[in-house]
Amino acid sequence: MTTRIRRILIYPIAAAVPLLGMTIGLGTAAGASTAPAASASASASSVSHSAQALAAAKQAIKQFMAGHHTNQLVRGHSQKIAALTQVQSTNWSGYADTGSGFSKVSSSWTEPSPSCGSSSSDQLAAFWVGIDGYSSSSVEQDGTMIECYAGSAYQYSWWEMYPSNAVQIVGQTVASGDQITATVTRSGSTYTLKVTDSTHPANSLTETESCSGCANSSAEWIAEAPSGSTGVYPLAHFSTWTAGSDAVTAGSTSGTISSFTDDEITMVDGSGRVEAQPGSLNSSGNSFAVTWKRST
């Protein structure tokens, strides 16, 4: 494989801008189809929280996500050498392909194991694939999420589109080690968002939405520190998230991350310290890992 020379840009810290709705939906959203309920033994093995604790965590998530944000890069001087660009963001880490006419993006991963510790601070980490949101105001994305609430970890499956709705949490029994596959597929102005949890199928979801004005100008594979009305929340300690079997289609071309113009995104805090660091793509251009560095 031909070695790709990296084009390194020095960017000011990204300023997050408001994304879609101002609320988060809990439970199964209207129009969403979910897999049959998991067995009692599977549910018991994946959830160690009381119903009261889970209800409190879900209420906290609703408040956290009240001002969910998309990525926004502020670009400075650059030296154009090759396709890969290294950029910084205050809330995203991973890879984004840019171009036009994106119609499918997918990835598979093993759900990370969070370490919430004894801290009472509320922390979040979302793992997803999507179309748009990198440099546009529309977004179509889905995946899983970790919430550290009152020192305990809660894990969910979810989907989101803008401008039609806010984040929708569907599965509430996602667990560390679950085998996850996420896809977003577009046909014309119709988008199918699908998350499959093959370990605990009750968390799986399929949602069909329409958007005639969505940009379809990027595809992403991202570990995110979600944002609220007060800014970016502390990033939950997830150790490592590895996105594999990464695939994408734009126009008549189907390939991997490296098949298109791609940006490698490092998450940094307001002082420029790294919070989450993506590794290099593998030789096939279809897998990489993001390593957690710090919460804030």
What is the CATH class?
A: Mainly Beta
Please tell me the overall pLDDT.
81
Sheet with the most strands, sense and barrel status: 19 strands, mixed
Cα-based radius of gyration, to the nearest Å: 18 Å
**Order of SSEs:** EEEEHHEEEEEEEEEEEEEEEEEEE
Give the fraction of residues assigned to helices. Answer: under 10%
Provide the number of structural domains. 1
Strand content: 35-45%
- CATH topology name, in short, is Jelly Rolls
Alpha plus pi helix count = 2
Tell the overall outline: globular
The strand count comes to 23
How would you explain this protein's 3D organization?
- It is built from two helices and 23 strands.
- By secondary structure, it is mainly β.
- It has a 19-stranded mixed beta sheet that branches. It has a two-stranded antiparallel sheet with strand order 2-5. Strands 17-18 form a two-stranded antiparallel ribbon.
- A hairpin with a 2-residue loop joins strand 19 (240-250) and strand 20 (253-255).
- The protein is globular.
- The model is unreliable at 1-24, 27-47 and 74-81 (pLDDT under 50).
Question: What are the key terms here?
Answer:
19-stranded mixed sheet; Jelly Rolls; mainly beta; 296 residues; two-stranded antiparallel ribbon; globular; disordered N terminus; 7% helix
